[in-house]
Amino acid sequence: MAFTKNIALFLLQLIPDSRVMNHLINQLNHFRLHGRFMVRGRLSDINDYIFSIKNSPYSASYGFFIDKETVKSFVASVFGERYIIPTLGVFRDVAALSSFDYPTAYVVKPTHMSQKVLFKDGGRLTPQELQQCGKWLKYSYFARTRQYNYRFLEPKIIIEPFVGENGKVPPDFKFFVVNGKCQLIQVDYGRFADRSSDFYDPDWNKLDIQMGFGNSPYYLNVGDALEHMKELAEKIGACFEFIRVDLYLTEQGIKFGEYTFTPGLRFEPAELGKAMYTKILAAKQKHEQLWCAS
């Protein structure tokens, strides 16, 4: 299976970068995820809306906001440096990376990709780990996916201190925000081992839904931290029509993880996806009315 996937990804990179071919690849990916092709101008739910972002050349301008290095300056300007995980280093080649040394636990990840990370207890990277980083630096997420929002991202490696406790990654809170209002909260546990996900409404009522992974046996009592995290997510979300903002709740407080305009989920049940897209449309219409009245 892995061999077949690698062959498919290699062949994908050989396909010319053209509007027609990129559209075709995005259509095939949409069919693979949702069992249907997109018809132009007939968006029906949030899944279709996310497709429209992936497939739009305009979304290439989002690069600054999804690069894991540059996004920190934007987020810090919105709600302050204390929510930002410090950057220990940014590297563009393996030779420079090989000399990096740090006494305590840290994480290594590419700034231009998603769901790729190395955890270190300290010290220098091993030859095998440096080899992995070298592969990341050669990887073009756009060439593999044809999602335009990744088109102009520069391959880099970023290193940050580990913010978990006792070697465990803290729960990952993902806030789905439409025009500055939180609509859904996802909490991921064990993101890189035995992963599970729970979903809550904005008032922290647990929802009986699954998307991608099974539910956990936990019920987190987050107290006042929920409103604080939601406020931070909505501050960022107010700048965009739709976004998912990821935050960690750590012993050092709330920390920003990343955000994305194109979550990889298949939104289910169908009513949920339609309801979120309806709110996007309502906000669009309101903005258009205000524009016409001004």
If you had to describe this structure to a student in words, what would you say it looks like?
The protein contains 10 helices and 10 strands. With 294 residues, it is α+β, with helices and mostly antiparallel strands. 37% of the residues lie in helices and 19% in strands. The mean pLDDT is 88. The protein is globular, with a radius of gyration of 20 Å. Among the domains are: 79-84 and 168-283, 2-Layer Sandwich (D-amino Acid Aminotransferase, Chain A, domain 1), CATH 3.30.470; 86-162, no CATH class. Helix 2 runs antiparallel to helix 3 (46-54). Strands 8-7-6-5-9-10 form a 6-stranded antiparallel β-sheet. Strands 1-4-2-3 form a 4-stranded antiparallel β-sheet.
Short description:
The chain is α+β, with helices and mostly antiparallel strands and 294 residues long.
